[in-house]
Amino acid sequence: MEIRTIKNSFAFAILYVGLGSLGCGSGGSDGNGGTGGASGGSNASGGSSASGGSSGTSGPLDKTAFGQKFKFADNLIQGWTQDPTDGSYAVYTADELVTTIDGAAGVYQDKGCRVAMNQSLVGPDPYSTAVVWAYDITTAAQATALFQWKQNDASAETAIGSYDKSVAVGNPSIVSIAAYGHFNQYYFEVTVSGYGDQTGTTCSACPKAALFFDQFKSKSN
Amino acid sequence: MSKHPHPGRRDFLKTAAVGAAGAMGLSALKFEKASAQTTGGWVDGMAINPAIDNKRVICCHDTKMLTANPVNTSWASQNANVDATVVGSNLDQMAMLLAQKTTADEAWKTIFRSSKPWASTRVAMKTNGIGGNTTNRPRWAIYKKLTDVLVNLGASPANIVLYDACDDASTYYNTYLSQTDATKIRAVMSVRAANMGGFKAVTLTNATGISAAADLVDGNIDILISVAACKSHNGTGGHYNYGSCTLCMKNHFGTFTDATKAQHSDNLHVGNSATTPPPPPLALFEINKHSAVLGGNPVRQQLCIIDALLSNGASGPGGAWDNRTDRLVMGTFGPIVDYFGAKKILLDSTIMKSSPMPALGVTNAATVLPMFLTNFGYAETDALQYIEYTPDAVPPIDTTGGTGGTGGTGGSTGSGGARSTGGTPSAGGTPSAGGTPSTGGTPSTGGNPGRGGSPATGGVARTGGSNGTGGTPPSTGGISDTGTGGAVATGGTPSTGGSSPADTGGTTTAATGGTPATGGTPAATGGTSVSARGGAGGSTGATGGSSATGGGSSGGCDVAAGNRSTTRLGAVVALGAVVAEKVRRLIKGGDQSS
Question: Same domain, yes or no, for A167 and A105?
Fold first, then answer.
């Protein structure tokens, strides 16, 4: 009940901010500290530096800044471009996650998510698609905890590129590779499909997923 | 679960009586009250449809519903490989098994009911607009079939609405929708609740700030159909709530929602954080008992379907599909449809082999899934019926051989009555020539009640035998042993069999059919369809011999088996009879047919 109350007040704060500008709604009401940067609104950079606050963590970027930080421009990875279909790019506050992933949002909310970005891309190979998620999980320790939870929950054991499995790992299915990774305070999910059944001995989609993690790693610094 | 005596074959139809039903007496069974329909929502014991057992769920497994693996996870790909014709045909078969009717028309007319003329009847079909382009959601072919059925009954496309009151689903379905094009979903789209009278606040005990589509709350929708994708569900704190699944019941988180924003209301979600074991999802149960869903007379929500052509395992509710499961699930009562959908598909790692339900989901489901039953007055020990239908499997009948048996003389013996010893075994029929109708079952005037059915042992090949076990069909007959049976007997009729080329069917074996006949029974088998039932009757009535002709019918049955089209329907029905018989046996003390 206490959690729900917090969420609701958080939602109210977000709504209020939404009526004004895109500012980082979490500021102030968030309580995680780092409010400093948050208020920055457009000045995303502010947030990052803001180590302030009792928790000593970085303040969350506002939605727009966070989205731009992690969004993949066309051909940033050769041949991969924005999926032209409606709704293929969006940014959410933690409380808004429920609009797209329903009750599953609770996992991310409870593990510290503050902002999330979702983007769909189409690739250079026939039918190739990628759906990527980037989450600000407040602290590196919390991002690691979420990664470990997901790794364990999905029984993910497939290596992604040259990444150590404590950093990025995948769960192959008949149609895709769903991969999870984390860098600093950020947690990422990348699902690549269009390369056939990935449950055999060879994961042909894994190197593609690794390309996205390479970029996420770079963007996380 | 009963297993077919031919282990080398795929089961054509399997029935599972869950729990301790096999060792249970009649007194332990719950029968819904036909007169208990209300306008005020769910009351324990009420029948959603007086002609259909709330506890009956049909699952169709057919790999032909998808012509190939979708090339990727996109919505377009999810639909591109769906064979709408096969899906439609299977939904017909499932409706017949659900309603226990011999034709699809009869079945759909039994399932869908309205207090108004069809032309003015309003229908709402729930879908799911949440997520993005790769979210697993019900495929269009299912709605197309449903609207074909409803229009055929007389409903106007303008009065059929496809909706998700929470998230705008038009993005995904508009291209498949038309009020005039019969190749599409003949319905109108509601962007959230726009075409459903807008939102109306509802008062719930377990959640605040909730509204629902006004036309449902006010009773302006006569028929509600919940069609859900098949997805696992994790949640708050990383736990798996809602029985680890999101199916027909949770689908209504898009019916009851926060009117002010296009998202599921967090007030409906389980805010348990890390509680172990997970608490009951009381708001979920409450909205599924609400009069907006289960009010009305006839009851508004008349059909629940799980689209499990593609399913979500480890990917959870928000991810893309990660398993091809090739199944559809159908029933009239959401909680039991969901119970089986989760238990028989999502939690079965041999089906969800591409990306199984995470271990925690399995653990948490053990706590919450039984609540799907107990919160509605049922228990896992009730005689729940899960009937699995596999159209492309070899039917449980020997098809080698000739065209279908005219029918064996068989049965003659059957001195009937009294018990089963019934018919001489078979000898019966020569092969075939197909299902002549089977004169079979003369009515069974028959005998003393006789226990008909038992004999089943008879017809080895099942032709005859199995079915035959008298009384089956009319199940009533069998059950009561009163032997109403014979009457039905028209038995062989189904003969359709013969006609179809396929039917190599009958062959000798079949012929032998009559065997089982123990007392007239056999006849039953024969009559693929109805007749079968008759036979059953015979059993009871046992006059045996008379009806018995068994062989005859058995022949017919065979034929049917061979067929894939209509004929097959006959067989299916007959098998339905078998199901009824199996259930009867379970009730009486254990399925002896292995």
Answer: yes
Q: A38 and A79 in one domain?
A: no
How many domains does chain A contain in total? 2
Backbone angles phi, psi at A179, to 5 degrees: -120, 150
Answer whether residue B547 shows pLDDT above 90. Answer: no
CA dist B351 → A123, B61, B344 (Å)? 30, 11, 9
Query: Side chain identity at A89, as an amino acid letter?
Result: Y
Residues 6 or more apart whose CB falls under 8 angstroms from that of A94 comprise A10, A105, A108, A109, A113, A114, A115, A116
Q: State the pLDDT at residue B543.
A: 32
Cβ contacts of B299 within 8 Å, gap of 6 or more: B37, B46, B48, B49
| Domain match, A91 and A33 both | no
Q: Tell me how close the Cα of B179 comes to any Cα of chain A, in angstroms.
A: 24
Cα dist. B92→B102, B106, B142, B384 in Å?
11, 10, 11, 22
Residue B455 has pLDDT above 80, yes or no: no
Q: Are strands B384-389 and B13-18 parallel, antiparallel or unpaired?
A: antiparallel
Residues 6+ apart with CB under 8 A from B7: none
Would the pTM count as exceeding 0.80? no
A103/A203 same-domain check: yes
* pLDDT at position B532 over 70: no
Q: For residue B358, which phi and psi values (nearest 5 degrees)?
A: -55, 155
Size of interface A-B (CB pairs under 8 A): 168
CA distance A199 to chain B (A): 7
Identity of the residue in A99, A102, A173 whose CB atom sits nearest the CB atom of B354: A173
User: Which is higher by pLDDT, A76 or B396?
Assistant: A76
Domain boundaries of chain B, sorted by first residue: 13-20+37-389, 397-594
Say whether both A15 and A45 belong to one domain. Answer: yes
Q: Is B301 left (phi over 0), alpha (psi -120 to 50) or beta?
A: beta
pLDDT of residue A87: 66
ipTM of the complex model: 0.72
Considering the domain architecture, whether residues A102 and A171 belong to the same structural domain is answered as: yes
Separation CA B584–CA B340 (nearest Å)? 21
pLDDT digits (tens, 9 = 90+) for B282-310: 999 999 999 999 999 999 999 999 999 99
CA distance A28 to chain B (A): 22
What's the CATH number where A111 sits?
3.40.1000
pLDDT digits (tens, 9 = 90+) for B108-122: 999 999 999 999 999
Is there a contact between A106 and B74 if contact means CB atoms under 8 Å apart? no
Same domain, A116 and A186: yes
Instruction: Single out the residue in A54, A70, A86 at which a domain terminates.
Output: A70
Q: Which member of B69, B72, B355 has the closest CB to residue A129? A: B72
Instruction: Specify the amino acid at residue B277.
Output: P
